Amino acid sequence: MCSRPSPGTGRAGIRTRRVWSSDTEGGEVPGAALTINELSKRYGDIVALRDMTFDVRAGELFGFVGSNGAGKTTTMRIVLGVLAADAGEVRYDGVPLTFDVRRRIGYMPEERGLYPKMRVGEQLEYLAQLHGLSAAAARTATRQWAARLGIETRLGDEVQALSLGNQQRAQLAAALVHDPAVLVLDEPFSGLDPLAVDVMSDVLRERAAAGVPVVFSSHQLDLVERLCDRVGIVSAGSMVAIGPVDELRAGGASTLVVDAPDAPAGWADTLPSVLSTGRDVRGRTELRLAAGADDQQVLRAALATGPVREFAHRRPSLAQLFREVVTHEPPTPADPPPPATRRGRARWKKEGRP
Ligand SMILES: Nc1ncnc2c1ncn2[C@@H]1O[C@H](COP(=O)(O)OP(=O)(O)OP(=O)(O)O)[C@@H](O)[C@H]1O
Question: Is residue 109 within 6 Å of ligand 1 at its C-beta?
């Protein structure tokens, strides 16, 4: 169930800064949730994360989306423990992550991490053993995942000899080969051909169905919309909207599409509560209405011009919603300027800004 936007709601019905969250009702799924709680992180003067908070439930496929530089990779690196947060924590099953739990995370880094000169099979076996599998189990898992991902004939090749798409399949195999309890994937779909996208999607769905919390970042919003149980939209280091795609779309500003073939140009321009008008490729009028507008008044005006063949509200796509949320996110207050003296600046860097 989605918690309704409350007062303070932005134009699209999407809460800004304070997160609009929703709960999915459903049956018990084995496994445990990954909780990201109020992470903050700076790189020198750059604030990468501000109170980043969300959870990825057991058995859930969670799409982590945001503009370039919004803080997705930083969040994922902190989950993995390759980067330390300045504040906040990450929990699995309610408990702060330990080294042992981190070993059970399958990770696909954005910069990819396989050794280019090592053979694919050797590398997968090595990584599986690093994560605790015996040599025999590592070999079996390597063969199984290579076959599942369509690279079984490339196990004897060096990684650098593979095409980029096949390197990515090998990278996914590396994330999966130790049967992880959590999957964290940074842009796993970038650069894949449609068949590889299907394979990747199927595998992620399967892992989620087995109870694994799966979080992945992507700029391919149509894919995220199709695939994910829930989506989180990040802006300037914070989560600004979160929920099942349908519920987020239902909260976004809708467009009214009117097909009135005999209507003269500009017929709706002066109607009260019409914010903007346009035409789609099929010549239909598209109207954006103010919140609480009376669409029946628009219908009467359309009928006054002649026949009305279509009159429908169209919900925004995830891509439109994303633009709306990110564009209308108020800028965070400007940080105070650095102190004027060198000593002051040195203390400021060491201790952090006020
Ligand atoms: N090592 C670093 N040193 C300094 N600044 C960094 C470093 N890594 C990231 N940043 C900055 O932190 C912010 C968040 O970056 P991050 O890579 O987490 O974003 P992202 O959402 O993953 O972006 P993209 O979609 O482009 O991959 C950006 O302003 C980025 O420039």
Answer: no
Domain that holds residue 268: 253-314
Nearest atom of ligand 1 to the alpha carbon of 76: 18
My answer on whether 81 and 218 are in the same domain is yes
Cβ(69) – ligand 1 distance below 6 Å: yes
Model-level ipTM above the cut of 0.85: yes
Taking only the tens place, the pLDDT of each residue in 199-221 is 999 999 999 999 999 999 999 99
Whose Cα sits closest to atom 30 in ligand 1? 69
Whether 25 is in a domain gets the answer no
Do the domain assignments include residue 11?
Answer: no
Spatial distance between the Cα atoms of 302 and 137, rounded to a whole number of angstroms: 69
Which pTM value belongs to this model? 0.78
φ, ψ for residue 263 (rounded to 5)? -70, 135
- Number of domains, the chain: 2
- Ligand 1 mean position to 48 CA, how many Å? 7
In a domain, 272, yes or no: yes
Q: Could you tell me which residues come within 8 angstroms of residue 159 by beta carbon, excluding any fewer than 6 positions away?
A: 114, 115, 116, 117, 118, 119, 120, 123, 167, 170
Q: What is the 3-state secondary structure (H, E, C) of 145-214?
A: HHHHCCCHHHCCCEHHHCCHHHHHHHHHHHHHCCCCCEEEEECCCCCCCHHHHHHHHHHHHHHHHCCCCE
In this structure, the answer to whether residues 246 and 273 fall within a common structural domain is no
* Ligand 1 in reach of 74 Cβ (< 6 A): yes
- 70 CA to centre of ligand 1 in angstroms: 7
Decide: 48 in ligand 1 pocket, CB within 6 A: yes
Contact criterion met (CB below 8 Å) for 155 and 120:
yes
159 within some domain: yes
**Residue 243 and residue 298 in one domain:** no
